[in-house]
Design a protein that fits this description.
It is a single chain. The chain is of the alpha+beta class. The chain has one domain. About 35% of the residues lie in helices and about 30% in strands. The chain has nine helices and eight strands. Strands 1-5-4-3-2-6-7-8 form an eight-stranded mixed beta sheet, with helices on both faces. The longest helix has 19 residues. It is globular and about 50 Å long.
Length: about 220
């Protein structure tokens, strides 16, 4: 079953920005529509209004004690968010086209909360805010150059820069896919394991699974 590990999606961000329009004079109509010319512009809109977007319980869950602390958070990670569709699993390399980005912000180099943005045609939009699983992973791993999400399979990986090139580390153990969080994999190895896992799930659930028509 799918586990939601976000505390706010862009709809929440939009609602706060819209309700706060009179208080936040620098929020333009473009921002309220959640449409920005660049990834950085979308990220900055979310970051600058984060103190209003999060409720008190959400702030506490991410160790954010005050609005002043939130306003003083700095960027600790700025990396591609690689959205890997099931029709890419037979490739031999990971396509790192910048269709989405993940930013982590925190204090003293330690991430506190993540913000993701995604490309929509020629503009960028705020996607998710929170993502505790990535906060924890980034805090305990260095040399992270990207995050990979295997769409439809619900598996996530860190892309790491190693002496031998890029390697991929599962965020946790994925036993059904025969992937261990204690190991790293080449792109070919990771994609092969994901394709085998996809094929096994298609055998179990039918072709509707790979077509994205099945809600597990």
């Amino acid at each position: 079953m799918k586990t939601i590990q976000v505390i706010a999606v862009f709809y929440l961000a939009l609602g706060v920005l819209g309700c706060s329009k009179n208080k936040l004079s620098d929020v333009s109509a473009q921002q309220v529509e959640n449409s920005y010319p660049t990834a950085d512009a979308a990220f900055n809109a979310a970051k600058n209004n984060l103190h209003s977007i999060l409720n008190d319980m959400q702030k506490r869950s991410y160790g954010l004690e005050s609005d002043e602390q939130i306003k003083n958070l700095t960027t600790t990670n700025d990396i591609p968010l690689i959205l890997l569709s099931m029709n890419q699993l037979k490739d031999t390399v990971v396509n790192t086209a910048a269709e989405a980005k993940l930013y982590a912000i925190g204090q003293a180099g330690s991430p506190k909360i993540c913000i993701t943005v995604k490309k929509a045609k020629d503009t960028w939009m705020i996607s998710t805010i929170g993502l505790k699983k990535y906060v924890d992973a980034l805090a305990s791993n260095t040399d992270v150059t990207g995050i990979v999400e295997a769409l439809g399979l619900e598996l996530s990986f860190l892309e790491l820069q190693t002496a031998n090139g890029k390697a991929y580390k599962p965020l946790t153990d994925y036993r059904e896919a025969k992937l261990s969080s204690q190991a790293t994999y080449s792109a070919t190895q990771m994609l092969g394991s994901l394709e085998n896992y996809r094929a096994a799930l298609e055998t179990k659930f039918g072709k509707e699974f790979s077509a994205g028509e099945l809600d597990r």
